[in-house]
Every structure is written in C-alpha cells, then in structure tokens.
Amino acid sequence: MIVSGCQRSGTKSVAKMFGLDYEKIFNPTITLSTIPKGVAFEEVSWFAAPFIKYFQNQKIPIIRLVRHPQAVVNSLLGINFWHDSKQKPYRNFILKFLPQIDNFKSPMKKSVYYWTHWNRLLGTIPTIKIESITDALVLNHRNRADAPLHELKGTSLWRDLEETMNAYCYNF
Prior knowledge:
It is a single chain. The protein has helices at 11-18, 69-78, 88-97, 107-121, 156-167; strands at 2-5, 21-22, 43-44, 62-66, 127-129. The chain has 172 residues and is α/β, with parallel strands linked by helices. It has one domain (2-167). A five-stranded parallel β-sheet has the order 2-3-1-4-5. Helix 2 packs across helix 4 (107-121) and helix 4 crosses helix 5 (156-167).
C-alpha cells in the first residue's frame, strides 16, 4: 500500500496512526531506478507522488491523502519552507517534478501552485481528506494567520486551485 499527497498534509501522523512506514523507501533521494521491484511495502510518503503512475497497473493499493489547501499553504509559510536552508533537499525534490514552480516569486503563490499540481501528479485514485480523521489527530495546533489566497482571484493560478479543490470537494 502507498499513501501519498502533499507534504504538510498529515502523512507522518497517518503513518504513526496506522503503523505504516514513513518515508522509508520514498524519500528525497528516491529515483525510479531505486524503487524496490517485486517487494511488498506499506508506506506513507509525499515523495511517492511522482512515481504513483508506475504502480497503478500493479496490485498495490494507492490512496491520496489530501488536506485543505489553506491549511497546507499556512503550514508551508509557517515553516518558511521556500527560504529555510534546512528545506532545500525537499525544494529540490519538488523542482525535479514541478520546475514551473520557479516562475512564482511569492512563497504563497509557490505554495498554491505546489498544492494544486502535486496533488494532480497522483491522477485519479481513491482520496481521503485528513480533515475526516482529525478527531484522532492534532494537526492544526499552531495559530497562524490565514494566507491571503483571495489575492489570487481572477488569475490562472486561482482557476487551477479552484478546479483541484472542487475535485476533492473543498470550499473556501
């Protein structure tokens, strides 16, 4: 089984809750050639998203874990993801699969683009909203101001965000 989605979507919490491996196989150094072949594994990792298409014709259950984009954007901004030097290996991994993200200078816009397009990498697979199981998890323990996503209204990035949000039944 593979559970994947965006980072900051509760992947670590879900792995702990269900006793699954967390980023053991799928990590920042993973490549298509280093994925074990013919081995059963149960892993939760946002790093798996770009490789899901290679597993869809196999008998491996795949689940998308999704979290409301506002919460993901707030979390990314809260950890200063786009500028913190500790996050560089993770940013480099994202850049390999979403190179267009560098077209955006604003951390908020990068975060929105990331949420929208990283989730789209997973294609059409069963989806679980982390919010549907948050009674057992504590994900939103920090108080942060909401990122001003409304500033994007009328842009193509906003239209992409709305389209992807609608696909997962999210609203503002």
